[in-house]
Design brief:
alpha/beta
Length: 232
């Protein structure tokens, strides 16, 4: 066990993959953390694979990697991107977790106004970047998978009150997938005394792949360092 190091489990989002969180994992790994990034079951980018995995499988995928990480270090924080934040809450209800960070984690999802703005931007620029992203997301997310996401969301909302560890909520204003008021809902329903919301103007939903990632990653590192040092 690497007693002198802290661990960080970093969980990707619904229908995505570890590419969504790689920049953060690489940064924390370079700055003294033992990092682990589980690939959630069924998340291969192929719709039929998603159909064969339910939300309990997604949580179990992350839990399996968490258990292995706990063999390396006892000081573990969890960072959850998008749906990964919901999984983080579920794991923190079962295990001793030093801190949680959520990034664009949905309670209220799909900002239709922002989606329309993004499509309008495609039209003005004679591009199809956002349009193709939405089509790809739809193809990788069968209806049964969306239902499983909703079941995970609804079951997690009732568990927020069980969370008392330090908690950082990160949210971008131009997120087209997670509505801004999700951050306030999480903040108001967790029981953590040490809790904070960081709101950023730009970055979109895939903020850790955006040009604005450096500031957000650094803010997450500062929070983790302080929280783990104080509460270890």
């Amino acid at each position: 066990m690497q007693k002198d190091k802290s661990g960080c489990l970093i969980i990707h989002g619904f229908g995505g993959g570890t590419y969504e969180i790689k920049a953060l994992a690489d940064y924390l790994g370079d700055h003294g953390y033992v990092t682990a990034c589980p690939k959630l079951k069924g998340h291969t980018g192929i719709g039929r694979d998603m159909k064969n995995a339910g939300y309990k499988d997604w949580v179990a995928s992350a839990e399996e990697v968490l258990i292995k990480l706990k063999e390396k270090t006892g000081n573990i924080a969890i960072v959850g991107f998008s749906m990964g934040g919901l999984i983080a809450v579920n794991l923190a209800c079962k295990y001793d977790i030093r801190a949680i960070v959520t990034i664009n984690t949905p309670i209220y999802y799909w900002n239709i106004y922002r989606v329309c703005l993004n499509l309008l931007e495609d039209f003005k620029n004679k591009e199809a970047n956002n349009f193709m992203r939405y089509i790809k997301a739809k193809q990788a997310s069968p209806i049964i998978s969306m239902l499983n996401f909703l079941m995970l969301l609804n079951s997690t909302k009732s568990k927020l009150s069980n969370i008392s560890c330090p908690f950082l909520i990160t949210q971008t204003k131009d997120d087209d997938t997670t509505r801004l008021k999700s951050a306030n809902y999480i903040y108001d329903n967790i029981c953590s005394i040490d809790k904070k919301i960081n709101i950023y103007e730009k970055g979109g939903h895939l903020v850790l792949n955006s040009p604005y990632k450096e500031k957000i990653i650094k803010d997450i590192e500062v929070f983790l360092n302080r929280s783990i040092e104080i509460y270890s």
